[in-house]
Every structure is written in structure tokens, then in C-alpha cells.
Design goal:
elongated; mainly alpha; 104 residues
Length: 104
């Protein structure tokens, strides 16, 4: 999970540097984490229900609740999303409300 957080933060910071937008970086990092876990769920579906063949998987295979029964896949996208959201919120809050020592 630590690797997922690091990648999400790196993506957020990269897009912040390129686009000058914390929101765009946060959205892209969350989209990456969610898409990655849906892809992993598709592989679980293929292994468990599709006889190892991608062609046997329906379009909704990665969203099938049966492949989301454990906490790990949920945490692998929820935690990175929460971290980048907190970073964006803290940065935005600090920008809007500077510390008392910096006020005129």
C-alpha cells in the first residue's frame, strides 16, 4: 500500500507542477488508484470465474462484488485517494488562511 501512496503523491505533484492545479493532480491520482484496483479486480474475476480466459469476462467483471470481498483492494484505492485529498486540502487551507505570524 505504501507504494500506491507514493505513486499517487508523485502523480499529484507532477501534475501540480505541470498544470499549476492541485485539483487536477488530485483527480488524476485518485483516477489512477481506482483504475488500477478495478484492473486488479478484473484479473481476480478471470482467475476465479473465467477459467483463466479474458474472453469469458463480462464487461462488468471488475465491478463484480464477489471480487471485492476482502479489505485489501478497497484500502489500495481508498488510502491513496484519502492521502492526496488531505494534501490538497491542507495546501489549499494554508494558502487561504496564512499563519498569524505572516499576516500584516
Amino acid at each position: 500500500m505504501i507504494q500506491h501512496i507514493v505513486v499517487a503523491l508523485a502523480l499529484q505533484l507532477l501534475l501540480r507542477a505541470i498544470l499549476r492545479s492541485w485539483g487536477a493532480g488530485t483527480a488524476a491520482a485518485c483516477a489512477w488508484a481506482i483504475a488500477r484496483e478495478i484492473t486488479q479486480a478484473e484479473y481476480r474475476w478471470i482467475e476465479w470465474f473465467g477459467s483463466g480466459l479474458r474472453a469469458n469476462m463480462p464487461w462488468w467483471g471488475g465491478l463484480d462484488p464477489r471480487v471485492w470481498q476482502k479489505a485489501d483492494p478497497w484500502l489500495d484505492w481508498l488510502v491513496p485517494c484519502a492521502v492526496v485529498l488531505v494534501v490538497a486540502f491542507v495546501v489549499r487551507t494554508r494558502r487561504v488562511h496564512p499563519p498569524a505570524s505572516k499576516r500584516p
